[in-house]
User: What shape does this take?
Amino acid sequence: MPLFEIFEKQGLAFDYNISNLLEEQFQRLSVTEKELIYWLAINQEPVSVEELHFDVIVSDCKPFLIQAITSLCGRSLIEKSGEHFFLQPLVMEYTTQRLVEEVYQELAGETSVSLKLFKTHTLIKATAKDYVRSSQKELIVKPLFKKLLNSLGGKERLLSKLQNVLEQQRHQEEIGSGYTAGNVLNLLTYLQVDLQGYDFSNLIILQANLQNESLAGTNFQNTTFDKSVFASSFKSIYSLTLSPNGKLLAMGDIDGQIHLRQIADGKNLLTFKGHEGCILSVAFSPSGQILASGGYDNFVKLWDVKTGQCIKTLNKHADSVLSVSFSPDGKTLASGSRDTSICLWDFHLGICLKRLYGHTDWVLSVGFNYDGSTLVSGSGDCSIRLWDIAKGICVKIWQDHFGATTSVQFSPNGKTLVSGSGGKDNSVRLWDLNKGDCIKIFHGHKNAVFSISFSPDGRTIATSSFDYSVRLWDVEQGTCIKVFQAHTSQVQSVSWSKDGRTIISSSMDSTVRWWDVSKGVCVRTLRGYDTKILSLVVFNPQGTTVLGKPVNTVSPKGIDCIMGTGGLDGLVRLWDIESGYCTRILQGHTDWICSISFSPTDNLLASGSNDNSIKLWDVNTGSCITTLHGHMSQIKSVTFSPDGKILASVSYDQHIKLWNIQKRKCVQTLVGHLAKIQSASFSPERATATEGIKYTLATGGWDYLVKLWDVREGNCIKTLSGHAGAILSLSWSPDGKILASSSFDRSIRLWDTSNFTCLKVLEGHSGGVWSVSFSSDGCQMASASEDGTVRLWDIKNFTCVKKLQAHSSGVCAVCFNHLGNILVNTSHDNIIQLWDVETGECIKTLKIDRLYEGMNITGVTGLTEAQRGTLLTLGAVENLV
Assistant: This one.
């Protein structure tokens, strides 16, 4: 009879009486039985004998595990379900509390020589499912810390105690083989302690979860790791797909790498360089032996899955390849591109069989039906097209979406089609192929639906969105049945496991997550690491102090003192350019920081993020003064007015907001763009005889338009057209007479602001131009492109005077210093370069520390070759003299 039924039968409540009864039971337990019952409490869910054998490290207990399990079952202290064992809720609660109390007594003692449970049991299992590990932190670690902090008198004394425990481990060989060092490390990371400079050398570390911990400068020399988890070397994952047999996961990341992993345990099998720039789509052939990838570099590549070798490169597209899909018979490959075309390939011969035209915007998604006779495509032009493969013609067009059609997929039985969209739509639509009608619309996502996947039985649809969530939809009922939320950035891709029990999703937060469909929880997370710099600004005010020292316009080397950068990791970094050091890190955003701006009048910095918020920071203290909310989507640009009184922000929600800095509130919202807005820039001060100081705000968007706004009146005074791609950056000349705009169309346009005509189109970049900036005298302009180059332009004669080969993976931002003699640029490879404008020479290079920068792994054992390689890639060092 279950224990709770015994209590109920005897009329007992779970209070003093039950505690006494359980305590009496505990006093009768053998050493092995206590070992097991504590492990069942730690595991939090049913586990097998094999897993318990894996957990137990006390050699004297291992031979008696089965006997102990039988005994505990006989006394109703543990229960059995199939081949798994677990604790009833009342026993679980009591055992967990007892575990916490005993570990507390051990750690609160004067020495750690008598450590028992802290040595033989881990408090947090690095290898456990995500939701189990969360429970361990909440039910075991949290109450333990509360008791220790109260007893020891504060965090500093607790840290000193934990360090003493570590030190004693090095001198007690019989203790060193347990969970002690791993427990200490997990407790330190739970406390969010900066581990730089910590010494974990000559220890045995079990079950340490180090996926998201900075271990820069940490010493692990001659340490043995076992059952520990580290971060992966992949960057933000744009695309993923599962192999036909359901055993392999292929992922394409923002850095052009492809990663092959095992579905069962997430183990990395192969990592190889795929493309220059991010990989936007991956697909397995029906045999599972070939992987196709489409990249930012305009190529389709075919790979041998066993070796990772590139078999063929297909080159017909004139722009990025956004989607690839194999036909069911494995003979044809379809690719959709930013050049608005679809190519059908005989990939064995490496030739393009047909080219399909009709879409008027990017082809975002392509897919075959079950027999390969029909291809479906979704586009930025908001349409869905069905194509007859044999004839190479479009046979059906749907245009019900009023946002870009981001993803399309046929159902397994071929009778329906599902599509997802972005823009102002954000809906999922189900289409009856026989009737040619939309039969259901699913609403719920609050931002663009980017990826769609049918379950193997066709009864459920999984969708991922830029709103950070994954949703499951019941096809028959047309309702959302589950929402998975754990990602902290846009979810780019989602796919079902072959058995339909698991969903795998990838996000720009550098994680890949496994979700248990029935329980609705995340069971595994692969965590990569990406600090790519997206935004840059140089601080040029005169007569002020920043970070406790004066800022001069002329330093000994003519280099301004302070620079700010924002990146994919959600951090703002302030740099002393003279020394080359990062002097302060501002934490608070939960997603990419796309834009930062220094106030021209005081020590304020504004940052705009994909988390839909703007933060104002005190540069001197590093504290966040306030957070501004109002936008409903990612904020792509923030800029201060020349007097520092107004902050303008633009967003993918198509709104421009003007914020009163003194009042910390939005005072005006401007609407006029027809698509997402990417860039904004205030004109310099311009005085008129009648109106005094007058500011103009320029904004640019994905509608290919530049708009000029009268800030005082709040109306659009002019719209400038001519670009053939999204406007990525805007910059005014110091006198306000010229406005420069750069675009995805690889060009820069110079506009005469007196009559709003285009003075000149500057061409030469072979990729989108992400950033433009005028020098302080207005004689030169710099541009930074995804082609990896920075160009210097002579504005008087509109010629390129210098081409700087800055990086291999795209340049994000460029900016002149106050004097105009130094040019600063940032790139996707986390490098900041300072260039002498006159000579074109790179005079300084700054770099963001990687997650494990300088981590000493000399003599470390217990790592696989893949783990060792990952640690080295993320900055670890070995074989130090």
In short: The radius of gyration is 30 Å. The chain has eleven helices and 67 strands. The chain has a mean pLDDT of 89. Residues 586 and 622 are 6 Å apart (CA to CA).
